[in-house]
What does this fold into?
Amino acid sequence: MTESTEHPLSGLWAPTHLKKLYYGPSSVEKHLISCLPKELSKAFIITGSSLATKTPLIKEVEDLLTKKHHAGTFSKIQQHAPVQQLDEATEAVHRDPAIDTIISIGGGSPIDSAKAISHRSHEKSGKYLYHISVPTTLSAAECSFVAGFAKEDGVKTGMNNPEVAVDVIIYDAKFALQTPQKLWLSTGLRAMDHAVELLYHPTSTEVPTRQLILTAAATLFEYLPKSKAEPKNEDHITRLQLAAWSSLYPFGLNVKGGLGLSHALGYALGSPYSIPHGITSCLTLASVVRLKADNAVNAAQIARILPFIGQSRSNDVHQDALKVADAIDGLVQELGLATTISDYGVGEDQVPKISKMATGGQDEGELYSKVKVLVHGLL
It folds into this structure.
């Protein structure tokens, strides 16, 4: 059984194989070595060049591992995880058969790359790599078993395999302190995107999925502005990291299909036009919520957010869902993240292409027409 229903209230939630979640300042220093699966484990680090060259974080992790456990580091993963870098990183891991653990440090691209490398490792050797993730953004890639990466033509693709789900997550506020504020805040909107689209997903369960999502939305609305005002406040950082986890980990193994239209638009806008996924969520989420408000079932779920963000519900779920969209727009404005696709060089001539990609190849029909209007509004 993978279906959940409201009437009667029933369902099945099936978690991934996540074994541990540590959170709090200095968690990496305190717990990383104890998280390794074996006494003689060899770990390979996957990260991006900014963390490796502009912060002390990667060197600190290498020093923690010592020669006993550190098998190498690949620090060339770029935004949207281009397949060329993924191929290179995979080859580096395959050169040492003693490697049994992969440590991803960074945002969605290094984390997704590590999942893809584990998948490829299994294809070659029959074994998956034990995955420890140290996220530095709020994109929540550590919470899913989907790995997205960009093909040579820039189009995002990926793989879906529950066996590559992260084994250990370490949320360390001191690592997130190194994240540029715009990236930190915009990936917070990405977490909001996860929460809202999972809330109205037809196969989401009431517990723990929707209950955790509602608390995640409340925390994101409250603490993203606080984090903007006090970017060095480690308690704010940790609360937001836990909200990001709550926004997507409850996806579970039971949810069928992708998250929703806002995510589909994010993939259509992201790697093809070099727009960060946090920013794509800032662009699309409120508009998608307004479109979804036209469906009473979706609107009823979206409206549940209102009491969690300090607003009252009415007897009109359509209007209540529109109020949620307005609140999301307001949050984007408050965080200084408002933008347009025109700001990223996307012209009106690209609207049909984006709409077609976001609707799974449609180029006519009601959904395509609505999405085309939505995308045009993002210019």
The two ends are 43 Å apart (CA to CA). The CA atoms of residues 20 and 146 lie 19 Å apart. The beta strands are 20-23, 42-46, 70-74, 99-106, 130-135, 146-150, 156-160, 168-171. The mean pLDDT is 93.
